[in-house]
């Protein structure tokens, strides 16, 4: 198993402990209390990740990817979507052509 998955599992658990926390003393609690803000931050991090990928090199991409994954985990938690629900969606798509899967989605 990749070290990434172990780190993400620990990070997700830490994020869960911040639910109900004081948003004035915890950035994570602040995002968890405001899913729209969490979504905005994820969007910003996605753009920064793309910029790093095309213009800043591997180290910047790794750093921005870490920020992106953190903010994604926070948004999922803030929206009360379990990681298992996301995993189920991914598992259901395994073995299916990306083009076929996308075409089968409801509009």
Question: What descriptors fit this protein?
Answer:
EC 3.6.1.31; nucleotide-binding; 6 helices; amino-acid biosynthesis; mainly alpha; histidine biosynthesis; 107 residues; Phosphoribosyl-ATP pyrophosphatase
Average pLDDT across residues? 91
Distance between the termini: 36 Å
How many domains is the backbone divided into? 1
Per DSSP, what share of the residues sits in E-state strands of 2 or more residues?
under 5%
Question: Would you state the CATH class?
Answer: Mainly Alpha
Instruction: Tell me the overall shape.
Output: globular
The assigned structural class equals mainly alpha
Low-confidence stretches: none
CATH superfamily: MazG-like
Tell how many strands the DSSP assignment holds. Answer: 0
Q: Biggest sheet, in brief?
A: none
Quaternary: single chain
- Total helices: the number is 6
Break the fold down into its secondary structure elements and pairings:
Elements: H1 3-17, H2 27-32, H3 35-55, H4 58-78, H5 83-93, H6 98-104
Helix pairs in contact: 1-4, 3-4
EC number: 3.6.1.31
GO molecular function: ATP binding; phosphoribosyl-ATP diphosphatase activity
Catalytic activity: 1-(5-phospho-beta-D-ribosyl)-ATP + H2O = 1-(5-phospho-beta-D-ribosyl)-5'-AMP + diphosphate + H(+)
Plain-language structure description:
The protein has one domain: Orthogonal Bundle (Helix Hairpins), CATH 1.10.287. Helices cover 76% and strands 0% of the residues. The chain has 6 helices and no strands. It has helices at residues 3-17, 27-32, 35-55, 58-78, 83-93, 98-104. The protein starts with a helix and ends with a helix. 15% of the residues are buried.
């Amino acid at each position: 198993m990749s070290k990434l998955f172990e780190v993400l599992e620990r990070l997700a658990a830490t994020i869960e402990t911040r639910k109900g926390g004081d948003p004035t003393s915890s950035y994570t609690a602040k995002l968890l209390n405001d899913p729209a803000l969490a979504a905005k931050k994820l969007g910003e991090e996605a753009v920064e990740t793309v910029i790093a990928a095309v213009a800043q090199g591997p180290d910047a991409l790794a750093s921005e990817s870490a920020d992106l994954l953190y903010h994604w985990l926070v948004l999922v938690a803030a929206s009360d979507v379990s990681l298992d629900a996301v995993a189920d969606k991914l598992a259901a798509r395994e073995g299916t052509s990306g083009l076929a899967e996308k075409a089968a989605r409801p509009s």
